[in-house]
Amino acid sequence: MRALVISGGGSKGAFAGGVAQYLTEELKRDYDLFIGTSTGSLLISHMALHKAEKVKRVYTSVNQSSIFSSRPFLIHKKHGYENISINHFNVLLNFLKGRKTFGDSFNLKKLLKKTFSKEEFEELKNGPKDIIVTVSNLSLNEVEYKSIRDYEYEDFIEWIWISCNYTPFMSLVKKNGCEYADGGLGSMVPIEEAIRRGATEVDAIILKTEVTYFNRLPSKNVFSLITNLFAFMLDRIERQNIQIGKFAASHHDAILNFYYTPTVLTTNSLIFDEEKMTEWWESGFEFAKHMNKELDQIEP
Questions:
Q1: Where is this motif: GXGXXG (predicted)?
Q2: How far apart are CA 91 and CA 83, in angstroms?
Q3: How many CB atoms lie within 10 A of CB 114?
Q4: Could you list the active site residues?
């Protein structure tokens, strides 16, 4: 059984889209299992449908308004770098509404419904491939994996949305009596789950560099400090997931193929820039092409 795993990574998901498009369209890899976390969960359904171009158009045209119904930060560009600061008005308004988070991402849920139709959902649910998204159950302190086979359209759309909600900057969702948030808070790279479900070969797209190339810039304000803290935490979770995945693969004789980003794409994946995301998609496609050519030359 072959599985495609796509990690979390916010706007960097555009790079993963390019890699996945090359693997599915150019190499014609036929995956039985697709597992995504956060931004990865947005990609996997369309990749399973062989509709990479469709999801590419979505990824390369989104902006902050496409994601946030209430954006909790402002973006400042200085000396070519983008910094964020708190949007006091929106954050205060959110708290006055009784929300538990700085911002909300209801626009993303609307976008999901526009781009992933009920007909496409039924085609996947009734087909042979399994599509799984990762969510974090904060109430039960557990990571949960939601398969398309177990839910109807409205519920599965909501699970995809929940998987992407980078709390506390995006919505916290109460469902089935529990509070749920971004799957990356528990499992950024769910390789172990793919192997547990029977995968014997896993292509894992990881939205970070294999080694650390930089020291994070000093925090400019309390909001950038919070994003830096979360980035640090998620990076540690990601490294742990990869180590556990390698351990699981060695004990089940599974093959792992890793696709890391070759360079640092951004230091803040909450910023959605159409131009940059278009570049990242193309660079992901070219990177996968180059990497597989090198592998072909190595093989006898």
A1: 8-13
A2: 18
A3: 9
A4: 38, 182
